[in-house]
Predict the structure.
Amino acid sequence: MEINGVQIEDTFAEGFPIKMARVLITAVTERWALEAAREATGFGTSVIGCSAEAGIECIVDGSQTPDGRPGANILICNMGYKNLENSLLFRLGQCILTAPTTSAFSGMPEAEKQFDTGKKLSFFGDGYQKQAELFGRNVWKIPLMSGDFVIEQNFGAVDGIAGGNFLILGQNQMAALTAAEAAVNAISKLKGTITPFPGGVVASGSRVGSKYKFLKASTNAAFCASLREDGVCTLAEDVSSVFEIVINGVSKESIQEAMKAGINAACRVPGVLKITAANYEGKLGTHQFPLHTVLE
Amino acid sequence: MEINGVQIEDTFAEGFPIKMARVLITAVTERWALEAAREATGFGTSVIGCSAEAGIECIVDGSQTPDGRPGANILICNMGYKNLENSLLFRLGQCILTAPTTSAFSGMPEAEKQFDTGKKLSFFGDGYQKQAELFGRNVWKIPLMSGDFVIEQNFGAVDGIAGGNFLILGQNQMAALTAAEAAVNAISKLKGTITPFPGGVVASGSRVGSKYKFLKASTNAAFCASLREDGVCTLAEDVSSVFEIVINGVSKESIQEAMKAGINAACRVPGVLKITAANYEGKLGTHQFPLHTVLE
Amino acid sequence: MEINGVQIEDTFAEGFPIKMARVLITAVTERWALEAAREATGFGTSVIGCSAEAGIECIVDGSQTPDGRPGANILICNMGYKNLENSLLFRLGQCILTAPTTSAFSGMPEAEKQFDTGKKLSFFGDGYQKQAELFGRNVWKIPLMSGDFVIEQNFGAVDGIAGGNFLILGQNQMAALTAAEAAVNAISKLKGTITPFPGGVVASGSRVGSKYKFLKASTNAAFCASLREDGVCTLAEDVSSVFEIVINGVSKESIQEAMKAGINAACRVPGVLKITAANYEGKLGTHQFPLHTVLE
Amino acid sequence: MEINGVQIEDTFAEGFPIKMARVLITAVTERWALEAAREATGFGTSVIGCSAEAGIECIVDGSQTPDGRPGANILICNMGYKNLENSLLFRLGQCILTAPTTSAFSGMPEAEKQFDTGKKLSFFGDGYQKQAELFGRNVWKIPLMSGDFVIEQNFGAVDGIAGGNFLILGQNQMAALTAAEAAVNAISKLKGTITPFPGGVVASGSRVGSKYKFLKASTNAAFCASLREDGVCTLAEDVSSVFEIVINGVSKESIQEAMKAGINAACRVPGVLKITAANYEGKLGTHQFPLHTVLE
């Protein structure tokens, strides 16, 4: 299979279950909503070493938000609901409540699982907080020096999927990287997914395990062009750099849609030679995303 | 005292000791250095609820970096060196090693305190990592799928100061907020300081303690204009919104310089009525920054 | 009429006929498409002193472009078709052909009026240009040092409308300006309109004529708060700053939609006191946009 | 000669005299200063087809501006002083006077050549304009709806140089383009120069003349990799894309400094194979910039 002359390997990405909550941040301008969103989703690339996996899902204009202001959806992901509740409490309390002009609404009001994060954070109001019905939502108004902070009482969470992915093999690093940028940008327009790594891109694709017993993951030596002389690199001769796009999504469909949009975008960039995906031969994950099926 | 017609209250900001490390991130473009810097300093507003206080100190052009590439200095701050070492390990490992085209150099090579974070992270190379002398620095080259990651073996850290601050009192929220943006921008040009809150701005200035015993801090009710009718707001009648700028710095002088630049910038914005600062009457902090002295 | 507590004056905006062409610029990334778009639409605020009125209409993702790459639509407007043809020739030739990785497609392929701008520009290829059918479009491929430039042979143009507008009256300058930013951002999500002034905002709303005979327009003294003491300002006492949003659109409906989205956004910003619109009492324009009707 | 493994050809760039004026735009925030600067310098790549060559020279912080607000220097260039005066009048009148919160100061107050652009634009005030001495400058205050516009009476201009340049030859388009981005970014930190093309980069390097007599310039076929099969491309086999950086500067020294910074930055990007420069064999220009001398 080929797209725009780029070979698509007949393999699959392998995904894992993860719990995720969506928070809709609104603010006086889109710019300030994004500042809060970036802070709240920072240091959130992988649960291996971060307290959560987090990213900006999409921008939302005022015609689609409860308070009519511009906003951004973020997704926060943890392996279990207990950790997710903690992530919500600390990321909202430290990064959204503290951010200029923001409000925080649940992006999953229909979910079965609900956390009363808004109620817990309302105690910051020192007794002056007030519960209210606003825009059809059950919210708390917390008086701040800069103005009242409005936060929904409950935030919903669902079973999602982590580890959707594809790999971009380039003639050189800049071709692969620009393709990664184009892919992340295309995915950023879609609802339901995030690309939690820096700028949406993984520079350090890994394998499970290591020769060092204290490490859970290590560099994917077989894909490291600089190890060609060591005899461990299995990349074709013309490939000299590989970037990975990792995608978490609220559903199998959302990940499929993101993979399709991202791969299509990457294949428009000159110098991209091949697209493949990372998996564990189906031994570890619960979901498989075959590239050829996703791209149909 | 007045600047551009804005009253400067005769009071002081109160600062506390904190440990901080500077990391110089370089990348193929300034844009990618900043992507890594933002991810590595995210979820890093206050050690009350974040694993560190962190921010982008300044942009560094290629003429001032070891590898001649553009870069950004970040500062990572913790109450003790043990926590700081952890922050370095996880924030660099998860957010810089994973970011496209980055290298990480110590921004405090002369410091007495040194952590071998680069050596620890080098094990990700799964035995293929190599120590080298590059650009006069002792570094590790870790093979990645996208290319080698270069990281200095040791990262220095020093005693710094947290809690430098000033408050901007505005006729309304947008006047105070624009002044805060102007202040943060002016501070961002300086070396030695960060403004770790979202977009550099604190919307939720707080007091120590709370009527709720389980909370260490709560909203500063005396400065909440929306509590005027409750009789607890002590702001002048014409003030309706207050934003705070919190500044961490490597030295007393750097904080003074940042406060001066920030206040001067804020006072150029129409609708700003008064500048003051937050303190604990000198009972808690180790450093005092009197506004009138700082602005001389 | 009120929106979110902001008074909407019962008046109308007055629009004029103008000719406009839409150009779809695609590039390797959205970022580079926008660089070209900004250059091509610069120095394009008003035909009073610019060679055209021009602006970025909206961002277009790869799923909606002929070549599958990300892009941006721009609109270029002139009083007559002859001037518009010139604007296309020079703005495309100087700002899009010269921009990295771009292609230029007609955004109005169905229009009756067509200019062969692509054919004219193809001569830059010095005989090496080639006509081709690509993506269902009749294009020219012009060899450049950086790669081939693809441009559609013909660009369509239509009768549009200039001068849609509304005015934002604020308690102070920062409130009115932030509201203007929010309004422009909301309009930027819509198809069919541009806000051609710097950052989408007009700081210098004008009236037709002047006490100086050599000037066609002059400051709208009745709306200048700084002329209150001169007795010419008719603004209410609490208003101290007014910004105008000027909108050009491909149809009456597109301007109505943009006015509605922009006013709704502006009215969410604290410190906005009133929305009104500029007209010439219906004496000059061909289209009237009554605010109360637009906002229904 | 090599930099970081990239070959630097022993050739020279050839420059021409041009007239240029520097305008310092200040605004309430750096962001708004840049909005005005972008509009005022747009549609300004080459005097072949634009009314001027223009670009943002550098950002200026509030400690270095007359009014203490953040700002941006722009340079506007024309072949003669008469055209330059027109450019100042129209670009300032249409793009800076109209932009939110801006003021405009002369960036060359010491120049022998002076234009009274500020005085001419002051008539927009319809009789309410007032001359004043502000910040040690002779300015006009023009009442606007959004607040007063302050503009210096006179703007200075000097003899500068156009056509400083270098070419980046890459293994592929993305390598050459990323290097161009890095080069432009490095140059943007310096005072005295602009890179007037879109995003600072020229995709369509040209030669003087054409097989078509009505064209003054045409594609540089010898450097077009896509014409390799036509037998006209003289590029080495491994080169597939070439971008040019064109630099205008206030002095020979400023162009030398910019070329040095830009080339050094470009040579740090993997996939860049060679740097060269464009000239007319010394037959047309008045200044020569030998690469090896510039890089010493």
Remarks:
- Residues 39 and 100 of chain B are 12 Å apart (CA to CA).
